[in-house]
Amino acid sequence: MGAVNMQTTWLLLLVISFSAGKTYGFSDLENFIRVIGSLNPNETVVNYLNGSVFWKQPKSILQKLFNYEGYNINRKIRQSDGTFLSLSREFVVYRQPNTSEILQVWMNPISNNANEVFNVANDPVNAHIGSATPAMPVPPSLPKFLVYNTDIVLEYPNPLQPDNYANYSAGPIYDSVELFGFFSNSTLVNASKTDSVPMTGTWMRKSQYLPWMVLGTTPGSLFYTTLAWKCSDGLQCVADDIMQIIKQNFPKYQYAPSTEEVPNETSWTAFKKIIDQRRLAGLPDIIIPQVNASSDVRDMTYDVDQRVLDILYKWPITVRVNGTAWSEITGQQGIALFDVGGYVGVDLEPLFDYSGYRLQLDGALILYNRTTHAVMQNFHNPITGRVNKVKPLEVAIDLIFRRDSFFTVDIPSSEIVGLIGAQSTDTDNGWAVNMLNILFPWQPGTGNLSSTFYGTWSSFASWPEFMVMGDTPGNIVQKLTVTNGM
């Protein structure tokens, strides 16, 4: 998978734990490696991603900036103690959302200045993986799929400290949230003997502005929502224009590393290295390239597969949701606050002018104690130290999605159609950003889609009223696994 700081995809694997059961002789850790990579150290695995990047400033709606496409190429090596060493590098480009052209120069709508665009080119991106996440069955009653959820709030010293990099630094602390879901067919995981099994994933992210946007401490955040999948044919799934850049300028990204190197690279550290090199050479920090008009452009259309619409238009639809909520406060480690579960009615309809879609959600969410798993009646707030009364949270909202922010992506290697959605609300009562990555499996041999779908719904929002947070800075992060299979 890819990300601006895509090392998180793999480093997150270090913080999770699971029981030591076995299926077909595989341990849970081995099954996890089969899902995200391969048990064969000589096999190179390409995990591809395709999605969109949005920005939101206070008191404004979510706006699309880029399409985002690339890959992580990796191998997994078993260690003598039974753990695994993950070795990888990653490359991702930013595309103009109307033409799909890979951007070299970007006209920044926030600053109204031209920016030099830095692709994601991180090498190395390595991790030691010692345990695996609990695999959640989807749907719970008759599982067809398993999902490994891996999520974290990242807070650490910013490599671009304001004293020396004021134009590129949002502050002394690097702050982001990374939310991953790795889905795989439960039968293949549990009943096959292969070193690797197909994977389709979801990835959502909230972060500070990218350094090359040259926005300093300008208020606002970036939001990413992407689909990811394991390529069945390796680099053959990489887009031609990306592959051309790789062969010309980054040939080593055609191969996974074979030995461990340190430290890991991120977009922030890679940017810092380039700026430092330019300063040492007496060059400007930012060098806007001379760009010729490209012939490799096309008018982008954002459509929803009619087969997906046929499923979602069949009102009433009830989905089951379950997941976890965290705190996000800059400079403080995120805290898992409570678990969430419930049932929500879904009704999708096009807007009258066909400029997008309205998604109506009605239902209730129940909050559960993270330790006892009991329904919460009192919430012991670890941030304020207070005890708050809790009752089920009613869901009665309309989510409006613009056409370019609600569309499907075909994933033939996974035999899945993926739906990507992102929208926001901002009122006097608070703000919220909602992102959807929903997967619709093919129905074998028919050309139709299965009526059972599943995926991820994540939201970033103002503190909920029952938490009584007052003027406490920050927001709540909620990630839910969604399925219409009960």
- Provide the β-strand percentage band: 35-45%
Q: For the report, how would you describe the main beta sheet?
A: 10 strands, antiparallel
Count of β-strands: 25
How big is the Rg? Answer: 22 Å
Helix percent band = 10-25%
What is the oligomeric state here? single chain
**Count of alpha/pi helices:** 7
Counting helices, strands and paired strands, the structural category is: mainly beta
Describe the structure.
The relative contact order is 0.16. The protein has two domains: 294 residues, no CATH class; 186 residues. The longest helix has 14 residues. The chain is globular and about 60 Å long. Strand 21 and strand 22 form a beta hairpin. It is mainly beta and 486 residues long. It holds the Pfam family DUF1838. InterPro entries: DUF1838. Keywords: Signal.
Question: Main traits of this protein?
Answer:
nine-stranded antiparallel sheet; disordered N terminus; 2 domains; 486 residues
Sum this structure up briefly.
Residues 1-25 form the signal peptide. With 486 residues, the chain is mainly beta.
Strand and helix map with partners:
Blueprint: H1 7-11, E1 22-23, E2 26-27, H2 28-36, E3 45-56, E4 63-78, E5 84-95, E6 105-107, E7 114-116, E8 120-122, E9 127-129, E10 135-138, E11 145-157, H3 162-165, E12 173-185, H4 186-191, E13 200-207, E14 221-230, H5 240-249, H6 267-280, H7 306-312, E15 317-328, E16 336-350, E17 356-368, E18 378-380, E19 387-389, E20 393-402, E21 406-411, E22 416-427, E23 430-441, E24 454-461, E25 475-483
Keywords: Signal
Signal peptide: 1-25
